[in-house]
Design a protein that fits this description.
- The protein is globular and about 45 Å long.
- The two termini are 17 Å apart.
- It is an alpha+beta fold.
- An 8-stranded mixed β-sheet has the order 1-2-3-4-5-6-8-7, sandwiched between helices.
- The protein has helices at residues 9-12, 29-38, 59-71, 118-131, 148-156; strands spanning 14-15, 20-22, 78-85, 88-97, 103-109, 138-143, 160-163, 174-179.
Amino acid sequence: MAVITQSDPLLDGIRTPRLVLVAPQAGDGAALFQAIVASQHELQGFAADLPWSQPVLDVALVERYCYEVQRNWQRGDSKVALLWLGDEVVGWLRLQHQPDESWLLQFWGHSDWQGQGLFTEAVERMLVLAFGHYQVRDIRVPVADNQQAAHRLCARLGMRLLSAPSPGEAAGPFLYGVALH
């Protein structure tokens, strides 16, 4: 389980050269909603517990999601960051504890901002935070077959391909991993 401290870097915000990664706050729903709407096609197939997987999406639903993330933060089993570029949300990251003691890292980026290295920058910073501050030992990253940019990002950051769907098997995610030794 992650180490929970009173001072969590994601609550205050973490800077990369171009982004700020920060936990969703009350009032962030409208900005997150705009990024979701712009990236709706890329978000198909994400976990059913996320607001963008719902059949009817509205700002109030996304704002409720931001509120729930804050309300449940101290449990420590899920760390969520919005990726801000100036005053615009351009992506999202979630690090979530799994029953086998590994952590699942999921991410997506606003379609208009892909191909510029922003998401590599964000995921790399989240890995540093996870292995350092949160004392995570093992991270798994599910990636759908059609998310070619995410496959390249995982490879660029040195993640190993742990499993892939077999030919003829129902489409499932590829699973990448990185562990602290």
